[in-house]
Amino acid sequence: MTSARWLVTATPPTPNGDLHLGHLSGPYLAGDVFSRHQRRLGADVAYLSGIDDHQSYTELRAVRDGRGAAQTADWYGTRIRQAWSEAGIRFDLCSMPRTSPLHRTLTQGIFQQLVEQGDIVPRTRPLPYCVPCDRWAYEAYVVGDCPHCGARACGNACEVCGLPNDCADLGSPSCTVCGADCELRDCTRLYLPLEKHRRPLETFWTTAHMNHHLRALCSRISDGGLPEIAVSHPADWGIPVPTAGYADQRIYVWFEMAAGYLAATGELATRTGQAAWAESWRQKERVVQFFGFDNGYFHAVLFPVVMSAHDRATVLPAAFVSNEFYRLDGLKFSTSRQHAIWMLDALKEVAADQLRLYVSWDRPSTGQTSFSWPEFDGYFLSGPPRRWRTWLAELSRRRASAAEIVTAAELPTTAELPTTAGTFGTWERRLSDRDRARLAARTGEALDGVDEALSVTGFSPRRAIARLDGLADEAAEFGSGLDTLLGNPALHDDFVAGVRAELSAAAAFAAGLYPIAPQLAQQLWEGLRPGEKVEEASWHEVRAGLAVPLWTGDLLAQCSLLHPRTAGEPAATKPAAHVG
């Protein structure tokens, strides 16, 4: 058991459309899985996210729909929270920037503090301008060729290579509203020069856990000098810049998010009455952040600079868990381009835990993966779930036989039989004991593997599922050997003891599956230990081996979420519903 406290964050999504399966495969499910696992290890965990209202992409969606940005943010913010809820993703706090008691005040306070410290300075530089729209074109409002990799990119950051840009350095910039070519005009904005913070930033990179792709991004950003980042833009949507002379500008939303994480922990402390949460950014090894690689630069470069410049005592995240793009029909899931399978649509077609199980298996942890409904169906028809169904059906049969034996002999249905029971020969008993000990050892190894696969440094739900699949295979092979004992009444006591061992392995399987597919795990748990909750099971006790009662019952029938879907057409790729 651990006494650690974990502050877990997942990047707040932009309310410019519904959540899609790419979002589910990324930080939100991953953070939920990690948080559930840490809680059952005994850790004190707070899992936070929010709605990123002030993104320019929210306003762009509103412009295209002919509606107000606040109305758009509220509509999609509500639908995003609904999708999280229906997918079983549980946050301890969902921060709402426009209603949070701390968010705006802290954001403006940190911004002005950095201005007064000289960390934020004015710069007059070119910025794209759309003449037909009479609008400055930054971030969501401009698209062009990335100055670093040449891919099509919007302003301020490239989704493909992950590197920042200054909008004016995009090749052939054009307006995303009307499509007209943009002209470059000088604009005085406020900038955050990152080079000044190189030494503490590089020190942080050497201590924080991150995957190779993110570490390579950090190295590439620092090569040749860290850039200066515009942290204000001429706009109407967002938090006003508090600095004199910039009343017509708004704080860059990604600067706002850095402050927003700090505000959210303060809000959590107030809501829960646990002041320690407000100190999470001062306690080593307590913060882990989940996000997509396209947000890697912000979390690994910009946010650490903002937080450290605000408070030198800040202890930055212990770990980053990032994911690559999830694809659909060969292209990246994209809300802005309306290329997606929307979560709320998919959840009408299949159960939440089936989606959780599959996208955890197919999660683009270190490389891009692609979703398709045929592959989803194939996973449940012929992948690991098929092997689990076969095992549970056979285990149910063996359990019923064992229950009949102990009932006829008037033996306890829950207590383990002593290893010296019956007429079994000594050498045969030792062989049987050895087999059960081997299964117990394999079960422990599998749970250790799940623990490692769901840890902050080795996070891989796919590997956790693979370890559980291996456990199911070990238990099924062990169980099939028990069937040979049924023909000899003299060996029935050994058969019963073996079934008890296999049922204990099934309990371990359910406990290991819980963070990934909590409802499915509870279905199996209810069939094994009725009236109990799998999430309350002690990981230590499960690891040591739990006793499971014997009786007649169909475990497979109990696990309805393990079966392939049998009706309905695949959820279509279609635009998200417009604001009502």
CA-CA gap between termini: 49 Å
What low-confidence regions span 5 or more consecutive residues with pLDDT below 50?
416-428, 571-580
Which class of secondary structure composition applies to the elements?
Answer: alpha/beta
The shape is elongated
Query: Helicity level, as a percent range?
Result: 40-55%
Radius of gyration: 27 Å
Number of domains: 3
Can you say what the CATH homologous superfamily of the largest domain is?
HUPs
- The overall pLDDT, averaged over residues, is 91
Which fold does the CATH topology of the largest domain refer to?
Rossmann fold
Strand content: 5-15%
Q: Examine the secondary-structure arrangement and name the CATH architecture of the largest domain.
A: 3-Layer(aba) Sandwich
Strands of the widest sheet, in order across it, are 3-2-1-13-14
Total helix count?
A: 18
Largest sheet: 5 strands, parallel
Q: What does the secondary structure layout of this molecule look like, with pairings?
A:
Elements: E1 5-10, H1 21-40, E2 44-50, H2 56-65, H3 69-86, E3 93-95, H4 103-117, E4 121-130, E5 135-136, E6 142-145, E7 152-154, E8 171-175, E9 183-193, H5 198-207, H6 212-222, E10 228-230, E11 232-234, E12 249-251, H7 253-272, E13 287-292, H8 296-310, E14 319-323, E15 326-328, E16 331-332, H9 343-349, H10 352-361, E17 369-371, H11 373-382, H12 384-408, H13 426-453, H14 461-482, H15 492-513, H16 518-528, H17 539-544, H18 555-558
Parallel strand pairs: 1-2, 1-13, 2-3, 13-14, 15-17
Antiparallel strand pairs: 4-5, 4-9, 6-7, 6-8, 9-10, 11-12, 15-16
Helix pairs in contact: 2-3, 4-7, 5-8, 6-8, 7-8, 11-12, 12-14, 12-15, 13-14, 13-15, 14-15, 15-16
